[in-house]
Amino acid sequence: MSEMMLALLGFATIIMIIVLLLRNVTVPAIAFIGVSTVTALILVLTGTFSIEEMGDFISAGVKGVHSTAALFIFSVLFFGIMSDVGMFDRIINALMKKVGNNVAGVAFMTCIIAMIGHLDGGGASTFLITIPAMLPVYKRLKMRPTTLLLICVTAMGVMNLMPWGGPTMRAASVLEIEANTLWMKLLPMQLVGIGIALFTAFFWGTVEKKRGAGENSALVLDESEEPEDTKETTSSEDLTRPKLFGFNVVWTLLIIAALVFLDVPSYYTFMVGCVVALLVNYPGAKLQGRIIKSHAGPALTMASTILAAGVFLGVLEDSEIMNQMAAVLASFIPQSMGRFLPLIIGVLSVPLTLLFCTDSYFYGLLPVLISVGNQFGVDPVHTAITMVVCRNCATFISPVVPATFLGVGLAGVEIKDHIKNSFFWIWGVSIVCLLSGLVLGVLTI
Questions:
Q1: How many other β-carbons are positioned within 10 Å of the β-carbon of residue 425?
Q2: pLDDT of residue 224
Q3: Residue 17 in contact with residue 287, Cβ under 8 Å?
Q4: Cβ distance 429 to 193 under 8 Å?
């Protein structure tokens, strides 16, 4: 199969998956596995790759996301235990007494927590720190969880520009310069982005307030407001542990600190967290088993989705189809528009983020575009900056980024709703950042 045909097959595969997800035709796991399998069969039947090679690609793809799947399973269990023991209710009631019905204040708090949480550059850990803490507050104030995600991903996209963040390091390695050098060049655009992220929180907090959020919201959850499924779970035995509140808060803070500072797999941190939380709060195998089963549904659903996404990434990324897609896209840039390459790629970065994973975007597309730009005297650094800054804005709305599924899973939001709610706002944010680069002299034409 020719390079052009491989690229077209890759585009068709991704577009089909996005259409299936947005139209809610099937659950994400089935979409990823089904469409990827059809693509793999086409590659085998055309003699492009052997069955053994496709098996290796799929194995490599699943291996790349299995740690994220394990992380989701044990993080859901851990935070589920902390919810069962009543820790979040106590904290939320205290927060609500301070914030009251100040919807904008809650939105700002979300943005600040996400920014601080993303200082380590880890999307999964930021979602795990921010969403479980803020989602109950949003529910109490009748704010939409899609707004929580939008504020979160906007703040994370801006903070992901730090020199130790994956995209900045990847772009710097392609340019063969220090990541810190590249970061200092794009720092003015990041500062603008931070301002936009704070504005995002203010704007959408105002939108939520106009929708009626915060009105008639009780500061303390009444029994009459308790969800039916929670009543059923606790009817036979009260699972709250008010006397262990201090221990549970300290233990949760230790787990979060370990996520940020310890150089061990995040899923292992949550494994240890679950073990200690279960042994202390719910001694006895029977009760522990019941707690685990009560949280098995959402954990299994999202873990299967993440592993299925690994199949998709293996078929397209490890077969280098995404690199062929990058080359084809670059070839469509008209000669007369060559000197505007950084602006073109900056404007298109958000839609392209839905098609390319991080590695293929920076290691596949960036080198090709740099070589194209060299023909027109375009500074390679400028091309890299637009790709890093504008692409980062949309990182956590992309269905080819595993952490995205962690975020929507924790928030209880369908990925199609997350993309629909966030896409155009995030695209606007990226364009404003791009324009700020021109105004501030970071980019030149």
A1: 17
A2: 38
A3: no
A4: yes
In angstroms, what CA-CA distances link 333 with 160, 339, 341, 382?
Answer: 28, 10, 8, 17
What per-residue confidence (pLDDT) applies to 92? 66
Q: What is the number of alpha carbons within 13 Å of residue 43 lying toward its C-beta?
A: 28
Taking the C-alpha atoms of residue 118 and residue 126, their distance in angstroms, rounded to an integer, is 5
pLDDT at 180: 83
* Residue 211 vs residues 206, 215, 421: alpha-carbon distances, Å: 9, 10, 15
Cβ 315 vs Cβ 54: under 8 Å: yes
Q: Are 200 and 151 in contact (CB under 8 A)?
A: yes
Residue type at 183 in one-letter notation? W
Helix H, strand E, coil C: the string for the chain is CCHHHHHHHHHHHHHHHHHHHHCCCCCHHHHHHHHHHHHHHHHHHCCCCCHHHHHHHHHHHHHHHHHHHHHHHHHHHHHHHHHHCCHHHHHHHHHHHHHCCCHHHHHHHHHHHHHHHHHHCCHHHHHHHHHHHHHHHHHHCCCCHHHHHHHHHHHHHHHCCCCCCHHHHHHHHHHCCCHHHHHHHHHHHHHHHHHHHHHHHHHHHHHHHHCCCCCCCCCCCCHHHCCHHHHHHHHCCCCCCHHHHHHHHHHHHHHHHHHHHCCCCHHHHHHHHHHHHHHHHCCCHHHHHHHHHHCHHHHHHHHHHHHHHHHHHHHHHHCCHHHHHHHHHHHCCCHHHHHHHHHHHHHHHHHHHCCCCHHHHHHHHHHHHHHHHHCCCCCHHHHHHHHHHHHHHCHHHCCCCHHHHHHHHHHCCCHHHHHHHHHHHHHHHHHHHHHHHHHCCCCCC
* Among the listed residues 65, 86, 67, 85, the one whose alpha carbon sits nearest the alpha carbon of residue 75: 67
| pLDDT of res. 220 | 44
pLDDT for the residue 403: 84
Q: Give the residues of the chain that fall short of pLDDT 50.
A: 219-236
| Residues 6+ positions from 2 with CB-CB distance below 8 Å | none
Count, residues in the chain? 445
Give dist(CA 124, CA 71) in Å, integer.
Answer: 8
In angstroms, rounded to a whole number, what is the distance separating the alpha carbons of residues 163 and 184?
Answer: 9
Characterise 271 by phi-psi region: left (phi > 0), alpha (psi -120 to 50), beta (else): alpha
The answer to whether 364 and 407 have CB atoms below 8 angstroms apart is: no
Report the interhelical angle of 51-84 vs 87-99 (nearest 10°): 70
